[in-house]
């Protein structure tokens, strides 16, 4: 009987972590549905980016208010998790405050956790106010329909509840320590919760009930939060690291070169090429490569990881010139729709063992109007705190529309015809190119 | 105006120091041609040994690539690279950030490797090396704001060269609220220059012109022929063309020197 809590905890731990790992594997599989892209170069620069941008939050603080609040929540999340190690050991062994032997250091740590927890609580409340009272526009764009809105709020509520439980648990523990209750050794310092302690009942039984309840709900809450991550937009807490590591290192203005096109253009321009020659290696079963992207699986794995990493903060959309002037395009929506589609493809595979054609594409949800509103100005790419690149997806969709569907706006078709015929986007004769000299 | 072509130079057995890539706007657009001429005047004044491709130049393919037509882009690029390589071009300067970006970043993968400079970078080198001297003249003390072209700024992280040139003219350089890496696009990039904008409630160039008007400049300086067109339209839209001039940095320097 004595070991029932320990056993319950062990089961909770295995189920909670196991379910999460299962879902993480799904995400990895889905990301790998993307096309290959070699980003194994320049590892030292990549590490530096990851350390500065993900770990150091350098791009977050470009907007100081949300940036600093975010750093508090982020630091709280990481540092308070040290306490979770103790919680897990206590849970498994039935001990109480197993690290208490560290004495002064332990007091310092618990004291810091409390202060951090309190700051996190305040920050999260301010985040909520920014969303719900100040109604900062980027949280209310039209892609922020009920689920994305609730999802963001759920995360905030989770954090509020977890931090409160942590402090209540400590407050009850503090009282119990003062009472000299059995099992509750005197350890830790409680700079915040000692003020809560006064509000709690003073009987030992009630305090133990509160302490145990808070402990259990806190621990269960952590496991629920962990598993909620997969279903939410909140995966950035993990994916920000690989995402910044594998982000593009080239100048933002450089669009990638399509090698498949290069091979064909070289053939076309080579006067010695025999147009009727059979290709050197024929693989009759191989489908000719599609130019550009019409579906999520035509994108690279980095673009798909971008979609999973996006936490829908909307900084990209708030700086997008098209979005600011009332156009349909929102870079955040591009990322959200990409993620929705790859998730849909993943569920299809889960259900059928392998992908069964569902006659849907990414272009069902991303309209031509969105795709053609982009000025390729890179403001969205620059603004993203974790180096997501919505522009690369927009360009790949344009490539599909133009090269596979000939579906460009009429004026652009004329522009391209002019370039092809006169070597300029306008209808001028190439022989007049130097006329300005004598005008 | 002294504008030698590569073909002429080679016929005389000469190799110029730098190729001036004029670009389509600089060759055909009436407004942009003035920028081209202003820059050529500066090149001549500094005795730069340069040449243009003239009728052998063709669109870099930038609008095609940004519109998603990789075929057309690569056709253009490979044709241009063949011409450039046949003249053994090593160094290119251009007054168009779109040409600049494409030549610098997207030609190497197709066999075109050159040192490519934006004209503001090149002018700055000329000043630093003492080959060109400027004085503020009529621009001294004028309120000038610089609009960062996306393909110079965010795309290639060049923010200081154009500003350094303005500072040399002793102008009162004022920054818009959104500037440098946070600068707002003029609305022309990504092949938008060649099409109507999608449905919305405002034109991007009007939004950007309002940014500039907020700081009360007498001149909005640019470094891109397309930005120049867009902002000029914005100023007209606001009926401010009497008070605010839109000028390329090369034009400002050339006119400061009475060229």
**Average residue-wise pLDDT of chain A:** 93
Which blocks of ≥5 consecutive residues of chain A have pLDDT under 50?
Answer: none
Distance between the termini of chain A: 99 Å
Shape of chain B: globular
Assembly state (oligomeric):
heterodimer
* Helical content band of chain A: 55-70%
Secondary-structure element sequence of chain A?
HHHHHHHHHHHHHHHHH
Q: For the largest sheet of chain B, list the strands in their spatial order.
A: 2-1-3-4
User: Biggest interface, and residues per chain?
Assistant: A-B, 69 and 70 residues
Any descriptors?
heterodimer; A: 439 residues; mainly alpha; 17 helices; elongated; B: 259 residues; alpha/beta; Rossmann fold; 2 domains; four-stranded parallel beta sheet; 11 helices
Describe this structure in words.
The complex is a heterodimer of chains A (439) and B (259). Chain A is mainly alpha-helical. Chain A is built from 17 helices and no strands. In chain A, helix 1 crosses helix 3 (64-93). The model of chain A has no long low-confidence stretch (mean pLDDT 93). Chain B is α/β, with parallel strands linked by helices and 259 residues long. Chain B folds into 2 domains: 6-125, Rossmann fold; 134-256, 3-Layer(aba) Sandwich (Rossmann fold). Chain B has helices spanning 6-11, 23-28, 30-45, 62-66, 70-86, 97-106, 119-128, 160-168, 204-213, 225-237, 249-256, and strands spanning 18-21, 50-51, 91-94, 115-118, 143-146, 172-174, 219-222, 245-248. In chain B, helix 6 (97-106) links the parallel strand 3 and strand 4 (115-118). In chain B, helix 3 (30-45) packs across helix 11 (249-256) and helix 7 packs across helix 8. At the A-B interface, helix 9, helix 12, helix 15, helix 16 and helix 17 of A face helix 2, helix 3, helix 4, helix 5 and helix 6 of B.
